[in-house]
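Is this the right way to post structure tokens for a design question? Let me know if I should format differently. Anyway, here goes:
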């Protein structure tokens, strides 16, 4: 009896955790990260006690959402790399169809608290670095086969993604629905290997992006 009940209990606990994270991600994205925890519990269809047993405070819930979203993005990136042999198509597929990529960027923009929690989480940081390395690898592979212009880097794409998706995040609903795909398609069109205007400056590196995140974190602390 105990042997049969224990796996079922663990499965129920896992389902509750997943429901809470999914509900919290949706509610936080729609209404901000200061929504009462009771509202999260209602949206997830669980009692407030169940929520607090899984996530004793708001910070632990925000961290779990970030870790889950980054892991899903990594899984999507790996799956696309495994099934798509053409480097340029793999890059386009990832940027345009990886649904959780938008979630990660959008969630990190919700509030200073969300940014600070994600920046301080070692699992999120490791996943972010791995994601940038995968993106950089896609870029280099597309450049190596001649399908992408040679004067950009994975870091450049990371910066452009943040700019594009941040602008889309604050746009009205009727614009936001298709805007990210529209502007990312426009961006990708300009990245193809063909005669064009030489880019000023140097490519952005992964280290540059880390420095930008650090500067943003310091600025957030100074405004608190």
């Amino acid at each position: 009896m105990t042997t049969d009940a224990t796996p079922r209990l663990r499965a129920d606990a896992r389902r509750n955790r997943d429901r809470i994270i999914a509900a919290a991600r949706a509610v936080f994205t729609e209404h901000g990260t200061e929504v009462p925890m009771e509202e999260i519990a209602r949206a997830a269809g669980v009692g407030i006690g169940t929520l607090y047993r899984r996530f004793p405070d708001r910070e632990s819930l925000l961290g779990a959402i970030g870790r889950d979203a980054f892991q899903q993005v990594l899984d999507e990136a790996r799956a696309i790399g495994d099934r798509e042999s053409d480097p340029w198509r793999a890059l386009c597929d990832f940027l345009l169809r990886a649904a959780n990529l938008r979630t990660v960027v959008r969630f990190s923009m919700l509030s200073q608290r969300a940014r600070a929690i994600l920046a301080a989480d070692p699992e999120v940081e490791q996943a972010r670095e791995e994601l940038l390395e995968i993106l950089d690898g896609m870029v280099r592979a597309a450049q190596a086969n001649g399908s992408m212009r040679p004067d950009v880097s994975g870091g450049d794409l990371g910066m452009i993604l943040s700019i594009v998706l941040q602008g889309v995040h604050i746009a009205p609903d009727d614009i936001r629905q298709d805007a990210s795909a529209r502007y990312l398609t426009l961006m990708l069109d300009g990245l193809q290997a063909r005669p064009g205007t030489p880019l000023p400056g140097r490519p952005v590196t992964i280290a540059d992006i880390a420095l930008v995140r650090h500067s943003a974190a310091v600025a957030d602390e100074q405004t608190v």
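Format looks fine. Someone answered above. Worth noting: The radius of gyration is 20 Å. The chain has a mean pLDDT of 83.
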